[in-house]
User: Fold this.
Amino acid sequence: MKIETKAIHLGHEVDPLTGAIAAPLHLSTTFEREADGSYPRGHIYTRLSNPNRDALEKCLAGLEGGEGAVAFASGLAAIMNVFQALSPNDHVIASQDLYHGTTHILQDILEPWGLQVSFVDVTDLDQLEGAIQENTKIIYFETPSNPLLKITDISRVAAIAHRIGALCVCDNTWPTPILQRPLELGADIVVHSTTKYFGGHSDVLGGAVISKVKDAFFDRIRMLQQIGGAVPAPFDCWLVLRGIQTLCCRMKNHSESAFAIAKFLDKHPNVEKVYYPGLANHPGHDIVLKQMSQFGGMLSFQIKGDKEEALAFTGRLRIIRRATSLGGVESLIEHRASIEGPQSKTPDNLLRFSVGLENVDDLLTDLDEALTKKE
Ligand code: PLP
Assistant:
């Protein structure tokens, strides 16, 4: 089955009781036991499993090509549980350019818990090799990364991880399995914020871990989900599963518009630099041609001028909304350094742009007018 068909049908069985095509919502927290004490229908208590969560996990595993998926209440809960499946004193090599919440988790929760973490530029394989320790258990990165869109060669990093007996873990939130397939390229685990493109409408928070194999590490993540309890509510699972049905068309449209906008910004006299892997001048362009089918809906750019200039520009936009997050139908722009906080290394004139599904000419006009007009 091709991915477009999987996105529509995986986890969407016709309801055997009513014939409903759209899945029923199972709000019950508890499920009936037989007189002999057994649970022949599979569910006991909703923290442990729920029909809506099962359906979502089945779909996510199928889309990424993994043997199993574990859904969480947020992307960060998913990421946190992958690291918590390790033991104190294990070592992680993590990319320097990551969603700032992930860096926060590693530095402020997991390092005090005993995890050892080295932050390196994983796009530089020599730096990566130099950070390897005897106890390295995970190499962790995003590609394209947030917010600088750095590109990591997934198969080469996976080969290094496997040589030293570590796991290669890739956050595939930005490209989604529609544009990039880390498990097929050698990664062992993929994590997602399903809040973004999977949900697709800026109205649901969620996360997921998808594993190539159902092994002891996967079982430990499942245990952490069920006992730690950072589980998504049934309706949140329902919303993400519904969002996934249109994921393929949305990703195509997001990518086409973002590519057109990146080319436009790259030539604009009031723009200093554009970060988009589809541009031939992007340092990761050759790698991205090998591992992504399109270049995605996210880009960052530095405006000519300082922070005030960047903020004033966003104030002149009429269609593109000023807000954090990404992956929804509406275009969102944000001044990244101020959302990341005082420790941010992101340039002060950098704006991150989640290109939505509006007509691309309207978006280009909005950008051009805000860049050119100075009130
Ligand atoms: N991973 C990436 C790449 C993200 O961009 C984000 C959030 O922006 C997260 C993880 C965290 O996801 P959530 O906000 O669902 O916890």
